[in-house]
Automatic annotation (TrEMBL):
This protein's record includes keyword Lipid metabolism: no
Binding site for NAD(+): 8-13, 97-99, 121-124
Active site annotation, chain numbering: 154 (proton donor/acceptor), 158 (proton donor)
Protein name (Swiss-Prot/TrEMBL): 4-hydroxy-tetrahydrodipicolinate reductase
Amino acid sequence: MSTIGIFGANGRMGRALITVAKEQQLKLTAATVRSSSDLIGVDAGELAGVGRLGLPLSATGTDSINQAGIWVDFTMPEAMLAHLELAVAAKKAMVIGVTGLTDAQYQQVQQASAHIPIVWAPNMSVGVNLLLHLVQTAAKVMGQTADIEIIEAHHRFKKDAPSGTAMAIGASIAKALERDLSKVAVYGREGITGERQQQTIGFATVRGGDIIGDHTALFADLGERLEITHKASSRNTFAQGALRAALWLQNKQPGLYSMQQVLGLADLS
Ligand SMILES: NC(=O)C1=CN([C@@H]2O[C@H](COP(=O)(O)OP(=O)(O)OC[C@H]3O[C@@H](n4cnc5c(N)ncnc54)[C@H](OP(=O)(O)O)[C@@H]3O)[C@@H](O)[C@H]2O)C=CC1
Ligand SMILES: O=C(O)C1=N[C@H](C(=O)O)C[C@H](O)C1
C-alpha cells in the first residue's frame, strides 16, 4: 500500500482526512502545515482529536515531500499550486479537492498532470458524483421547458462562491443541453431583473453557521417541479472519497483523472 501525506493538516478537511486515515488504518506517513506554523511537532492524531498517532506535523517543503508517495491537498488555490510544484519536482501523485480555482489556476493543474498523476474533483462524495449524472437525465427530459436553478448552502467560513460542486452541476446540465455555461449562467439576482430568460441556468448561494454542504438542482416548469438534492452530514464523506482516490492513484500514469473515474461512474449515461 502506498504511503499517504496530507498538506494543510490543520484545516477542516485536513483534520477529517487524519480521522478517516486512522479509521481505515491507512499508511499516513506525513501531515504538513505552513513552515511558520506553531503546530510543527504536534502529533497529527492529537490535532485531529483521534488520539496519538506517533506522526508529528512537519513543515510543508522540500524536506517533507519525500515522506509520502501520494499527497492529498484541501488547502487554498495559491497554496495548492505551491504544493503542486513540490509534487511535480519530487514526482509524487496528488489528490486535489481545492475549489475556487481561476481558469488559469486550473490550467496549471492540467499542465502538472503531464508529469504526475492527479485526481482533481470539487466534490469527493459518492452521492454528489451520482447527482452529476442524475441531473443530466433530468435536463434531457425537462430542460427544454423547465427553468433550471442550482442552490447551494455552506458554512460561514467558506471562502469561494458559488461552490465548486454547484459549478460542476451547472457544467453537467449545460453539457446535456448543449448550452455554453459561460453564456447562460446567472449568478444571483437583484432589482428589476425582468422576466426570467428560459435558457439561463441560475445559481443561488447561502452561507451560514456550520452547514457542511447542501446542493439542489431545481427544474421548475409550469405545474410541477423536480428537485434533486444532496446534503453532506459529515466532512468524513469527502475525506473517504479523497483517500479512496489516493489508493486508486497508486501506479497510475501521469494524467488528470476525475472522481467519476475513481468511482467507476464515468461510463454512466
Ligand atoms: N472536493 C471536496 O470534496 C471538498 C472540497 N473542499 C475544498 O477544500 C478547501 C479547503 O476547505 P476547508 O478544509 O474547509 O478549509 P480550511 O480553511 O479549514 O483549511 C484550509 C487549509 O489550507 C491552509 N492554507 C490556506 N492558505 C494557505 C497558504 N497560503 N499557505 C499554506 N497553507 C494554507 C490552512 O492553513 P492554516 O491552518 O495554517 O491557516 C488550512 O490548513 C476549499 O477549497 C473547499 O472548497 C472542502 C470540502 C470537500
Ligand atoms: O468548502 C466546503 O466546505 C466545501 N466545498 C466544496 C465545494 O466548493 O463544492 C465541496 C463541499 O460542498 C464542501
